[in-house]
């Protein structure tokens, strides 16, 4: 599954240690939240909204220092996960376009 591949890269690839440190010791809750969010974002059930209300992504991520290196690491994990899951290239490109814009918007510190 995409979310598992994403967090597996974050958890296991040393190059992503910087963003891994921003997460709890166990990634179970993070995996659930991203899965729930993506379900609703892609037109499926609103699992995230049903549990937590509006995602308010930027506000929820404000406690964490996110600059260009964190943004780039996050998008790299997602890109690798899309490849791992053999997502159709056209769909993967569209998803990365959408998610990259959101990842950039999440930055809350100067580089």
Outline the structure in words:
The protein has 111 residues and is mostly helical. It has seven helices and no strands. It has helices at residues 2-12, 17-20, 28-41, 47-52, 57-61, 68-84, 89-105. Helix 1 crosses helix 6 (68-84) and helix 6 runs antiparallel to helix 7.
What attributes does this structure have?
single chain; 111 residues; mainly alpha; Globin-like; 7 helices
Q: What is the residue-averaged pLDDT?
A: 96
What sequence of helices (H) and strands (E) makes up the elements?
HHHHHHH
Summarize the amount of helix as a percent range: 55-70%
- Assign the CATH class: Mainly Alpha
Examine the secondary-structure arrangement and name the CATH architecture.
Answer: Orthogonal Bundle
- Poorly predicted ranges: none
The number of distinct β-strands equals 0
Q: How far is the N terminus from the C terminus?
A: 33 Å
Rounded to the nearest angstrom, the radius of gyration is 14 Å
Quickly count the helices: 7
Question: Oligomeric state of the chains?
Answer: single chain
CATH 4th-level superfamily: Globins
Strand fraction band? under 5%
| Sheet with most strands | none
List the SSEs and their pairings.
Blueprint: H1 2-12, H2 17-20, H3 28-41, H4 47-52, H5 57-61, H6 68-84, H7 89-105
Helix pairs in contact: 1-6, 6-7
Summary, kept brief:
By secondary structure, the chain is an all-alpha fold. The protein has 7 helices and no strands.
